[in-house]
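Hi R.,

Here's the chain you asked about this morning:
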Amino acid sequence: MLFNYKALETSGKNVSGSIEAVSLNVAIGSLQRRGLVISLIEPAEKESWMTQIQFGSGVSHKDIVMLSRQMATLFEAQVSALKIFVLLSTEVENPVLRKSLAQIADDIQAGSSISKALAKYPAVFSDFYVNMVRAGEETGKLNDTFNHLADYLDRNYEVISKTQNALIYPAFVITVFISVMALMFTVIIPKISLIIIESGQSIPVYSQIVFNISDFFLNYGLIILVALIVFGFFTVRYIRTSEGRSALARFKLRIPFIGNLYKKLYLSIIADNMNTMVLSGIPMLKAIEVTGAVVGNEVYKQILAESLLAVKGGSSLSQSLSQYEEIPGILVQMIKVGEESGELGSILGTMAHFYQREVINAVDTLVSLIEPVMIVLLGLGVGILLASVLIPIYDIANSAGV
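And the predicted structure, written out as tokens:
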């Protein structure tokens, strides 16, 4: 960034100019090392209000993966931490990440550790990420740590995105179908039903049912819409509470077939998180605590929180997890084998890969089943609707022809 400044030399002379630096603090430090007393310093180009607005963290999953790969390469090349963050802060395209890296570089220059500097930006670097970096600092293997992080984030992103994409398709189709049906019942069917009724022809039972549904939507549609909006508003408010999050988490795990998919997804996240952290030298208690914070489901978060207390009390992880029906017996037994053999990290890695394959297979099966089922259901719905309208019209045409 370019900064304009006004300053006072030791001789008392006023000077002004501009300086290129990755952040404001770095610019101030450079000017002070020149012996200048700064009276004013500001960015040469101020950000517009539109560029300052960010939705969420403003940093994508892909940005963090690429950043981790780059840092692993630079650490492996024996580049100092300060130079790495200064360099990356000028190279990355994402403005939020660039600003965060520049401020992290300032903190490192001031004597902070990398993990402490990263921890100041939880919206960008998760608790899991920070703890992994802290372990890398303690073991002196930061290049391996950032490679592990990039590998983990890649695997995690692939599984989660595949699951979300599989669920988006049916949700979109159902939404479009409901919208089209609502339009038919409130705009088209009423006009056709009026023509058929005025013709005096006998109306089939199924046609009468469709016409009655149309009348119901016409008379009470606005009330139903307002009720749905109110219901949605209070549902969202309820879900934001701890009780609501727990209820939603339990509901997701109980949905037929999809609940099993979610369960495998969360188990893969748990196993992969703990595998990555244990192999990086993070203590088991910390690995359990951090995994519970990032698992993304209140049911499993509660299970891990209770298991953490049990392990602190002297219980083994496998014994504490065996009490919960949400944890499959095979995972418990494999963890027990890992504890007894001293290969818990490798065992967790094996289970993580197993559940990731299970998730991908379940998603592929779900997608292959959804398409024909949706086609059949949509065909039936449209066919019944058309039959209820076209058959009476056909009868009217026949009568007119006679």
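DSSP finds 16 helices and three strands in the chain.

Let me know if you need anything else.
M.
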